[in-house]
Amino acid sequence: MECKTVPSIDEAKGQAEGLVITKLSSNENPFGPSPKAVAAAQSAGRSASRYPERTDSKLCDTLAAFHGRGLATAHFFSANGGVEVLSLVEDALIHPGQRAIICPPCFGGYSQSLSNKRCEIDKVPLVGSGFNLDVDAILCAVTEETRLVYLSNPNNPTGTWFGGNPLKEILDGLPEHVTVIYDEVYYQFATEEGLPDAIRHVVDGRNIVIVHSFSKAYGLAGMRLGYGIAPQRTAQKVQKLKRSFHLSNPGMEAAMAALEDTSHLQRTVENNHVERRRLLERLSELSLEVTPSQANFVMVRCPEGYDAEELTTVLAKRGVMVRPAFYLPHHIRVTVGTPDDNTRLLTSLAQFCRVEG
To answer: How far apart are the C-alpha atoms of 62 and 230, rounded to whole Å?
Structure first.
């Protein structure tokens, strides 16, 4: 099981027989987008009869100012969500028949996109109960045909993370023809100190592309906005592949407004910190095996005798949407929602464990 489509809310309603749906399957912001982002999108929508700006330079200017650290506009490129950031980098840096390394369990979109482009995939699994990165095995898997190494931190679907040393060791050990795709779309939710300073490697000109998204912490999943941060030589290769009018005006304006609304982001992150801790504690009290998480979701091993598909279906019938974890047929991934959302999940799982566990 690598990348299976998550049902929509309407599809879930058909299973839940009229119950209100609590959606905890797609790692969305439970508070929605910033009101400032909504207002900016609505204002831009009044000019919907006009084409947007031909390029994303205004958004990239804003991102360079937001991140600072010596980054310039030319270090950035935008896309229709984080998955298109991946796709654009692949178009620029890898060709059919060449090889890429992924570390399952990881985001299923990596293998799906690479397979669609007829690239070869080498899998170097995460190791141990902590789902740790195997640096030596990654470096040993590199060949003359390898072009990309995908690293997710915090990792989807496990929620686990790694520090700065493994990333540096991998970058130091890779030959010049290999680029690291460093996917940190969940980084705002991490509370542990010591996550890699990936931007430093970009500024230093290392072969790395950082993937960010407005879909998670900023609550703009429906706007389809993501961006990459890369050495200028790499970002320019990607920019050359993009069509004119790549992003809509409402989307770009919403993204720029979202960056300014620090209070909305803080509310989102604080809720996640408190509720993630509560979920980890309460799920453990239900005798369910839970993986410690630094993201806005937690991964749970299913009760004995049930796989992820079965448990997902049972919960959907009770009005709670979760999803099977990528590559792990006996684990589900659960978004950290509002306190009420999470209480409903816990109540449903408690009934399930009591009645059917």
So the answer is: 16
* Residues facing 120 on adjacent strands: 99
What is the pLDDT confidence band of residue 215, given thresholds at 50, 70 and 90? very high
- The residues with which 332 forms a beta bridge, in sequence order, are 300, 324
Burial grade of 214 (CB within 10 A; 0-12, 13-18, 19 or more): buried
- What domains can be seen in the chain, in order of their start residue? 9-32+263-356 (3.90.1150.10), 35-260 (3.40.640.10)
CA 89/CA 238 separation, integer angstroms = 6
Q: For the chain, where are the E strands, in sequence order?
A: 22-23, 76-79, 99-102, 120-123, 146-152, 179-183, 208-213, 226-229, 290-291, 297-301, 320-321, 323-324, 331-335
Q: Are 162 and 172 in contact (CB under 8 A)?
A: no
**Would the pTM of this model clear 0.85, i.e. be above it?**
yes
Where b means 16+ CB within 10 Å and e means fewer, 268-295 reads bbebbeebbeebbebbeebebebbebbb
Beta bridge partners of 127: 132
Mean of per-residue pLDDT scores for the chain: 93
pLDDT tens by residue, 148-169: 999 999 999 999 999 999 999 9
**3-state class of 297 per DSSP?**
strand
Residues sharing a CB contact under 8 Å with residue 352, sequence separation 6 or more, in sequence order:
303, 311, 314, 315, 318
pLDDT of residue 49: 94
